[in-house]
Specification:
With 310 residues, this protein is mainly beta. It has four helices and 23 strands.
């Protein structure tokens, strides 16, 4: 069962500072992290998985009884403001070696976050399918007009809920039962050391590669060094994961199309700020000592040069 929506009383105060702080709800395997959005009129609460490596937004359309996963579905028939498009679209995921395709119907409807409307958003409505398309996705990568969906980050700026297209994400270690995403802000109580700026293209989903599960018991770390900027230490227990149905474990990174792909195993040990306006990523070692939000402004130095409180 999906846990109840947390109290949003602190969210209103954050919006006044032009930042939006939201919880991320993990699935049982802590492989996917869902965020609540509200779609339609009257608004329906829908959970979508946050994907930093995708630019497509789509939800599962309701067909029949969804059972205990009802909050992952959007019922088009109950939203008179929904505007169906004329075409279906097919979006591709994966790499040159491993590809998945997902088909959805184009549509537009009202989206809201934290009680404030973002206006009409273009998105896809799909009947879903087997993994990895059994849950909707909120794509937070750099936008692409060819995707035929709108960018949530653009909408937040237009609605004056944030000052720039930037957000920070903290999913935390496997021992923690939820993560957080902050649009337009940085939580200095979720990392240690200085926040280091690195000019990079993007971070995507890890592509699975099998390895020996016994390595998870070693008290060692996989260290990722980004030039002279930052080093992120990832414990073996977080970087190597077991999955039902597989004899071996999954190693959390590999070379794909000639480039290393880092995803959730890496993000469990890193606090990451994605600054789309300046095409930078800011990194620090993840930690947890409460919550202390600092706004991201605009311009070339939009992300503050701060150190974590932990």
């Amino acid at each position: 069962m999906i846990p109840p929506t947390p109290d949003n009383s602190s969210l209103t105060q954050d919006i006044g500072k032009r930042q939006v702080h939201r919880p991320l709800i993990p699935d049982r395997s802590r492989s996917f992290f869902a965020m609540e959005v509200r779609i339609g009129e009257p608004a329906q609460s829908v959970l979508v998985d946050v994907d930093t490596g995708s630019k497509y937004n789509w939800v599962l359309g309701l067909s029949g009884d969804p059972g205990p996963d009802a909050r992952f579905y959007f019922n088009v028939s109950k939203s008179p403001t929904f505007q169906k498009g004329n075409n279906s679209v097919t979006w591709k995921y994966g790499s040159q070696r491993t590809k998945w395709a997902m088909t959805a119907d184009e549509g537009r409807d009202l989206w809201s976050l934290g009680g404030k409307t973002l206006g009409y958003m273009r998105f896809g409505v799909s009947s879903g399918g087997p993994f990895p398309f059994n849950r909707g996705i909120l794509g937070l990568s750099f936008p692409d007009p060819a995707s035929k969906t709108d960018s949530l980050l653009d909408k937040l700026v237009v609605a004056r809920m944030t000052q720039s297209r930037a957000y920070s994400i903290d999913i935390g270690p496997t021992s923690r039962n939820k993560g957080f995403i902050t649009f337009g802000g940085v939580d200095t109580a979720k990392f240690t050391g200085p926040l280091q700026k690195i000019p990079v293209e993007d971070f995507g989903r890890p592509k699975p590669k099998q390895t020996d599960c016994a390595l998870r018991n070693r008290h060692d770390t996989v260290d990722f060094r980004f030039g002279d900027f930052a080093t992120i230490k990832v414990p073996f227990s977080d970087f190597i994961a077991s999955y039902r149905g597989l004899k071996d474990c999954i190693f959390g990174a590999q070379l794909t199309d000639g480039a290393p792909i880092l995803g959730r195993p890496f993000l469990r040990s890193a606090y990451v700020v994605f600054d789309q306006d300046n095409r930078n990523v800011h990194l620090a070692q993840s930690a947890d000592c409460g919550s202390a939000l600092t706004p991201i402004t605009n311009g070339s130095d939009a992300v503050p040069a701060v150190s974590g409180r932990c």
